[in-house]
Every structure is written in structure tokens, then in C-alpha cells.
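Q: Hi! First time doing this. I have a protein sequence and I read that you can turn it into a structure. Is that right? Here it is:
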Amino acid sequence: PAQISIWKKKYGFKLIVDIDDTFNIHKSHIIYGILSKIIPFAKDLAILADHITVSTEYLKQEMLRYNDRVTVIDNYLPYGHGQFKVLFEPLNEFFHRKIRVGLIGSASHIEDWSSIWLDLKRIVNDERFKENCEFVLCGYNSKITGWNKLRQITNGTPLVYKSPNEYMELYNKLDIVLCPLKNNELNKGKSALKVYEAACTDTILILDKLYKSKGDVCDYHVYPDKGWYSAVMDLIQDKKELYKKKIEVGDKVRRSTDFSKRIEKIREVIQYEEVQIDHNASLFSIIYNEDQRELSEYNVFFNKINSVEDKSYLFEYNPMIDIID
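A: Yes, that's right. Below is the predicted 3D structure, encoded as C-alpha cells:
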């Protein structure tokens, strides 16, 4: 932050900071060790920033303690582009395979999933479930104890984690996803991104009640009002109705979001803070993948992340970031 402050004074540029998560992470959380090192730096940036962008109203209220210029920008996805292509499965193909029920995400969700272990046992041991469904663990990492315990409990098919540029492939392996959330500050601040992601593959989500505060788009899916077991059983009892619901929900979510509005909001923030940069300053676009090079508007800075496979859960599919050097 000190160096950025010096650059701001020297070049007269504006600093816009995007904050993804709350600063209030409990020590018991699996990612506390990582985030606890980043949060002090992030707080300094929040104070130093000319503008902060967040994805939820909950995070906005938290960030207003550090800065009075905070804008909420929804996590809409560019359907039809890159890995966010909308995939359609014909009815006959769906009928000639088992219904895929499971979990999807990174190790950061182990704590959430562990809250329904007893429900998972009951689901996978149900005779109707075993006859008509298979349980799938998407994002599996054998190096993490929690994942191995889930595999043992569910006897689920493990599908290993993908890089940030490929993770959407895993949604195509699921018809129904269980999405429990523990009631903590981290989850309260999360957006409905999983809802937007699931719409690419017409995947049905069974959402924790915490999602009810994340926007009306969540209400197209299912809440486990009678319990997680009952929610799954209700969905799988009629395969034709499930297929119909998948198509309807995916279509409704996609129609209710508009990626151009996300871009428009970003442009509004940038234009509001826009200043004339000294011609001696250089603009860079940071990229993580060579495929992003052709999309880079400025000079390219390639950020090579070591062991990206092990750390992919730390990264989301980010737009290019412009920096001053």
C-alpha cells in the first residue's frame, strides 16, 4: 500500500479495488491461514482506494466502514462465451443415464458440506436413489482430508478439480447440486455466483436458506424446507419432470441476467474516477493464461502462478486488470 500511495501521488492515477470476500474470517475456517495474511493488506487498500467494487449489498455495508465510495456489481456471466457456453442435453440422452446428484466446489466448502454429512449418508443409502442416481464429487482433491471423508461417506464418483479457465466443465457432470452454507460472515457476503454458473448446464441447485438474501434469482431453484433428503427425493421421483424443471430454471436464470449491465456498471465506475495519466506511465494487462493475450488491451504482463492446480480454488475467472508501472 505504501508503494501504491507513492505511485498515486507521483502519477495522479485513481485506484479501484475489487473486494470478493469479507474481512471477518473465523479461525476455524480451512482458508483462514491464507486469508489472514492477505486481509491486513486488503484493508489498507480499501482505505487507500478511490473506489471499491463488491458483488453483494452485504459486502458493501462492510466496506463502507473503510471507504465511502462503494459500488455493487453483480457477478453476471457472459453466457455463450469462453467456458460459459450454454450446453443442452437432449431428452433421450438424459433418459438413458442415471441422474447425477452431488457437490461442486473447492476445499473452502468442506466446512459447509460437513454440516450435512448425516443427510448425505441417508440420501446415498436410499434404495430409490441407488437405483436411479449416482453421487458425484466435483472438484475433488485427494490431498485434502475432508474430500476423502466425503468420498468415503457417499461412495461418490470423484472428478478432480479444474483450473479457473476450465472449472465450468464440471457443472456438465451434475443434474442436481446440494449447496449447504454454514451461517457465518464469509457465506453471508458471498454472491449468487453458483446460481449463474449452474444456468450454463441447466443444473438444479438445492440452496441453503442463506441464499434467500442473495437475490430473487435464487428463488427459481429449490430450498430444503423439509430437509435435504426430502428435497433430493422430491426431485428424482419423476425423471421427465426433473428434465422439464432443469430446462425451465436454466432459461429463467439466463433471462434474468444481463452481462452487458455488469460491463456498463464497471465502465461507469471507471469513467467516474477517470483521470489523465502522464504519458510516461505504462498500462499493463495482467494475464494468467496465454489464451487471454489476444483480449489484452494494453501491454501484457504474464503472471505465472506456480502449482496452479493446487491453488486454483483461490482464483476466479477475472477480467483483465490494468496497473501502473
